[in-house]
Amino acid sequence: MAILEILTYPDERLKQESQPVENFDDELRAFLADLEETMLAGPGGVGIAAPQVGRFQRIVIVDCSRTRKPVPNHGRLFIINPEITAWDGMASGREGCMSVPDYTGNVIRAEKISLHYYDPDGNPQQLDAEGYEARAIQHEIDHLDGLLFLDRLVSRRNDLFRRKVYQ
Ligand code: NI
């Protein structure tokens, strides 16, 4: 396993659209192990998307069981070729990103989503997510379409915050 290098804003590659996974094989699962290790090595990371490490395939990992305040969640999710099939409600909330290490921002997202995706063995899966987990999934799927939370701020002046660094 290996910790992979994270692309950071304003790297143009983060704007690239990712392609669907076609082969659910050992090479994919080895990559997922590296991506998972990279997420766990980051500061408080609840999610990561393959394009953040320069692999432009529709792969994300989300794990909202590691948040400081407990939130409803499905544990560690390996989500491949996701499609959001239903949205409900809208809420503003604070987001951070390993690719934007110096800032957080307030972004409006759906409060509840239904998701169709494939697991690492290529089996179709379905889940309903809400609140912070729904937000994390939407944030990670944005990476697959070349979008960062910076692209969704209503106002850079009012909704973007420099991160305080604690040593
Ligand atoms: Ni991100």
Core attributes:
binds nickel (II) ion; Peptide Deformylase; 167 residues; 20% helix; 6-stranded antiparallel sheet; 6 strands; 3 helices; alpha+beta
Summarize the structure.
This protein is of the alpha+beta class and 167 residues long.
Describe this structure in words.
The protein is an alpha+beta fold. The chain has one domain (12-162): Alpha-Beta Complex (Peptide Deformylase). The chain is 20% helix and 32% strand. It has helices spanning 26-41, 131-144, 156-159, and strands at residues 47-49, 59-63, 76-95, 103-118, 124-130, 160-162. Strand 4 (103-118) and strand 5 form a beta hairpin. The model has no long low-confidence stretch (mean pLDDT 95). The chain binds nickel (II) ion. The site of nickel (II) ion has 4 residues, from helix 2.
The poorly predicted ranges are none
Percent of residues in helices: 10-25%
Proportion of strand residues: 25-35%
Bound molecules: nickel (II) ion
Ends apart, CA distance between termini: 28 Å
CATH topology tier name: Peptide Deformylase
Mean pLDDT: 95
